[in-house]
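Case study 2.
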Amino acid sequence: MDKFPNILLAEDDVDDYLFFVEALEKISPYYRVTRAKNGHECITLLKKSERPDIVFLDLNMPVKNGLECLKLIKENELFADIPVIIYSTSHYIKDIDACFKNGAHYFIIKPASDEALLTMLTKVIGRLNKSVAPPVKENFVIGVNGLVESKNY
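Prediction:
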């Protein structure tokens, strides 16, 4: 079994949440996904619920956005070691750089197909199973066609 069965997904869009869960179920039936509907709820769940093995954050959430959540997670010594993956439609260099600088492990650009999401999640979870150390910047962004080279984002 993977090292990361307990997942916290901060995602305000119900369709994106269901899309994500369906892809994970195809990888393994052992994943447990807890959903936070906004950034504030994400931080509350971290403090009051079972500690997740991995956190996926949407950047564009109400109340507290994904970057704000990332900063709070990485500043708190109780949560700083939890791998955080940004899961966003954004492909803006400003967002990618800010997430990298603030300690995110990977940046997944949300795909349109379930097959692409399945491939991307498999790749990211597989990499985390080998090492929870954050990657170098060249390996940070995962796009539809696999790795997005730093010069392309």
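The two ends are 34 Å apart (CA to CA).
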